[in-house]
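Session log. Operator J.P. requested a structure for one protein chain; no other inputs attached. Running the standard single-chain path with C-alpha cell output.
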Amino acid sequence: MNYLDHLYIVVLCGGGGTRVWPLSVSKKPKQFLNFYSEKTLYQETVGRAKKLVSQEKIFIITNQKYVDEIKQETPEIPTANIIGEPEKKNTAMAMGTAALYIKQKDPEAVIINLYSDHVITNEDVFLNTLKISAQIAFEDKCLMTIGVTPTFPHPGLGYIKMGEEIKKEHDLTITKVDSFKEKPDYETAKQYVESGKYLWNAGFYIWRVDQILQSFKDLSPNIYSKLAQLEQNLGKKNETVILKKVYQEVEDISIDFAISEKSPNLCVVPGGFGWYDIGGWKVVYELGKKNENGNVLIKNKDGKQDIPAVSFDAKDNLVYYSHQPVALIGVENLVVVDTGEGLLICHKEKANDVKKVVQELQDKGYNDYV
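Structure written below.
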C-alpha cells in the first residue's frame, strides 16, 4: 500500500499577523498579502501543496470570515474542502477538526499540516523532506514533525531537542523527540545551536489520521470528546450548529501543548530547506532585496503607479509604501510602513513590539484600524 495514494495536505489559514501591522489587519491578515511575488503567501503555500497532491486532496481550515477570500484566491480548491471555523481556538482544534473531515474521505489518510504564512527558499528540499516524513508516518504509525536546522541563535522561536536515533532515510537522521523548549534567551539559544542537538520548532506536523485521533483520545481527552461529538454529526443537517457548539466549549490550546509535548510516539526529521515565518517586519527586511545602501523598498502592487521612494545618507531601512512618495534622510535601521490607512515608524530591533500597538488600539476601541 503506497502512502502517496492516501496523502492529504491541510493548510492552516486562520492567523491574524498583528506583528505586521498596519499592512496586516483583521480583515486582510498577512497570509493574504504578497511581499515578494505576485502571489500571496497563502497562494504560494497552496502552490507547493499542489506539487505533492491533487487539489481535491488539499483542505483549508480558516476562520469563517476568510472563506470568501480563500475561494477567490484559490478557486480550484473544492468548496467542500474549505472548513470555516466559527471562532479561533488555536492549532489543536484546527488540526483535529481538519483530520475529521479528511477521515470522512479516507480513513487511512496520512496528513501533512502546513501554515499559510511561511516562506520556503529551497522548495525542492522542502517537498522531499515532507514526502520522507509522510512515508515514515504512514508506514511506522508514528507522529512526525520537521524541525528546521538552525542557522543562527534565534530567541524568538521554540526549539526541539533531538533524542535517540530511530533510522536514517535518504541521508536524513530521524530521531525521537527528547523535549520541546520554549523561546529561550539569546545565550541559551546560542548553546542550543552550538550543541547540534536542537532544531527550530516550525510547527510542521505529519501523521496518519487514525494515529492523531488516537493521540487526542489518549493525551487530550477533553478535546477528543468535542471532536467525537463533531464527527457524529458530519454530513448531517445540524453539522454547522454542532461545529459552533463544540468550538464554543473546547479549550484554546496549541497542538504543541495538547499533543506534541505529551506524546511518546513523536519523531523528528531535520529540515535544511530555508524557512522563514513572516512573524514581523524584521523578517520582511531580512528576506527583501537590498539596494547598495542596504535599504529594502517594497511598493504595494495595488497602490498608485509610478510613485517613488528615495533616500539620502540612509541605510539598512525597510520601506513599504503604496499611495504617496516616501523620502528617508540620514536615518538607519528603521521600519517605515505607509499603507494609506495606517503609518508605522519604528526601529528594526523594536519591530516585534508592533503587537503592543495593535493591543493599545484595540483597548482604546479603534478596532476598525486593526
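Operator note: The mean pLDDT is 92.
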